[in-house]
Specification:
Layout (H helix, E strand, L loop, with lengths): L3 H15 L3 E7 L12 H5 L4 E7 L2 E6 L4 E5 L5 E6 L20 E8 L5 E7 L6 E5 L23 H8 L6 H6 L9 H11 L15 H24 L41 E5 L2 E5 L6
Antiparallel strand pairs: 1-6, 2-3, 3-4, 4-8, 5-7, 6-7, 9-10
Helix pairs in contact: 1-6, 3-6, 5-6
Length: 296
């Protein structure tokens, strides 16, 4: 599933085309994705302008003039592409590609920029785990978003906050980081990478770094800095191209070439002077990659 950096990359790719544009028409080529489309879905969007395009955790939000807030989720394999006259897709720099089969083009937004330049924004989703829903007022009040925790992209996520969030929690540190009620948008890949940067084992209890004292405070600070930095680095690199994820221009992300531990089982730990090797374990049905030598 695309993680927060991938979704943010999609948002940034769509923003120049969508913000301020008028939705001329919407085609829905099936009655549902993961969920049925809202009643009068195309009718309620047609003719209205997109005021702003946002992101909350792994959700895209489009604020519509005099209309609902559109909430989009990419699911496992969903992607958007932008098609203009004479410019359908920029070629990707990676060998493997996303689905281009027209059978999986489920939603098409026909838009016109403020200069009335036409474009088509196509949502393609082979597995149909993505969805599009409406929030009638504030998107944060929608049941899908209401219980989400703090965003990991700003200064609000610091060591002091992590200490409060993790205090007395017996769950493994990785599980606590993946709890969307605590921190919104973190996924399996970037949690593994952040824990390696912080030098913390995914197996230790979350409460162990929130027990008070200088060492615990330092561990919380390291982890907060690692989370923010790995997310920022991944966004800058355009995300990671695992399985079906691609950017809106058709190219694939670069961050997978910078993985330090994820999917590197048995390889030497890249941390200078470590000498350990990356191990893979399974936690809650998900693969965890870490270095047992330097992550304690």
């Amino acid at each position: 599933m695309p993680e927060l950096p991938e979704v943010e990359t999609v948002r940034r790719g769509l923003q120049p085309v969508l913000e301020g544009a008028r939705i001329v028409a919407v085609e829905t080529r099936r009655p549902d994705l993961r969920f049925p489309f809202p009643d009068r879905f195309a009718e309620r969007l047609a003719g209205r302008r997109v005021i702003s395009l946002g992101r909350r955790a792994k959700y895209l939000t489009a604020h519509i003039e005099d209309g609902p807030v559109l909430i989009c989720h990419l699911g496992m394999s969903g992607s958007f592409r932008v098609e203009r006259e004479g410019d359908v897709e920029a070629p990707g720099v990676f060998h493997h590609d996303r689905s281009k089969a027209a059978a999986h083009d489920h939603v098409v937004f026909h838009v016109a920029s403020p200069q009335e330049e036409a474009a088509r924004i196509v949502f393609n989703d082979p597995r149909r785990f993505g969805f599009m829903l409406f929030a009638e007022a504030n998107a944060d009040d929608h049941p899908m978003l209401a219980g989400l925790g703090v965003e990991p992209t700003g200064n609000r996520l610091d060591g002091e906050l992590l200490s409060r969030l993790f205090r007395d929690r017996k769950a493994p540190l990785k599980a606590a980081l993946l709890d969307q009620r605590l921190i919104a948008g973190l996924g399996n890949i970037y949690v593994s990478e952040a824990l390696w940067r912080a030098g913390l084992s995914p197996l230790r209890s979350a409460g162990s770094i929130a027990a008070g004292g200088r060492k615990a405070a330092e561990a919380c600070d390291r982890l907060a800095n690692a989370v923010r930095s790995v997310i920022a680095d991944a966004i800058q690199a355009g995300g990671s191209s695992l399985r079906d994820y691609v950017q809106t221009d058709g190219s694939l992300g670069y961050f997978q070439h910078s993985f330090s531990v994820y999917d590197r089982e048995g390889m030497p730990c890249p941390k200078a002077g470590c000498g350990g090797h990356i191990a893979r374990i399974v936690q809650s049905g998900r693969s965890t990659f870490y270095c047992p030598e330097c992550q304690r």
